[in-house]
Design goal:
Two copies of one chain form a homodimer.
Chain A: H1 15-24, H2 29-38, E1 41-42, H3 43-50, H4 55-67, E2 71-76, E3 82-87, H5 89-92, H6 95-109
Chain B binds a DNA duplex through helix 3 and helix 4.
Chain lengths: ~120, ~120
Amino acid sequence: MPRTRHARLDCSPGCAVEATLQFIDGKWKGVILFHLFERTMRFSELRRRLASVTQRMLTAQLRELERDGLVARTIHPEIPPRVEYSLTERGRTLHPVIMVLKDWGDMHALPAPAPSAAA
Amino acid sequence: MPRTRHARLDCSPGCAVEATLQFIDGKWKGVILFHLFERTMRFSELRRRLASVTQRMLTAQLRELERDGLVARTIHPEIPPRVEYSLTERGRTLHPVIMVLKDWGDMHALPAPAPSAAA
DNA sequence: CCGTATCCATTTAGATACTG
DNA sequence: CAGTATCTAAATGGATACGG
């Protein structure tokens, strides 16, 4: 969620909508969360899944998710270092949110499945 | 949705999540849509509901929503001018999305209702 | 392997003034 | 009333180099 970090909005109804967006917005957070719902992953795995993300951005987004209590970071003190990211309890509560976003995207945002026969 | 306008992402699964966010992100779009679900509103009404939005931003966000086919703009040729904004069919399909966002926000994002007695 | 630090281009958004 | 124009501040995000 770019813009100012969780700026307190003048909370009229509808504010909760923005409040939620603050957490999942931010160019990569949605996808990161989506992948972490599948399973815990290490940094390099996420990086591969996101493909075009830079190290800097991935780190930054993960840090924000961590700071918002949505993602947990586990450091395994090995050589070479291994760091794993998983969803917290709070993070898991976002499951319905992410899924609704994905469903709408599949149905309305992406071009069109271009079916071979029926339409 | 700030960042680059609907940049085509490398669509792996999870892309649909971002794709949806592209439409409802953007500091005010979520709330604008939320209010338009209630009813059609004119520019000044929306402005009052958003309170801290500037004219420039409200216009910009509405233009993007219009361009994405989510909101319809109706100009009533009167003096003084009256312009009304309403949801399109496509816009209405976002209802479950916005509601899930609102519900999560109410439950997890906002401080805490601070009840007088029970907790 | 998993980051952080720095530099820089782009984008976003606020304030303000003006128009039909 | 409902915008548009301009100017500027701030934030985002990409590239690159370096560190534990």
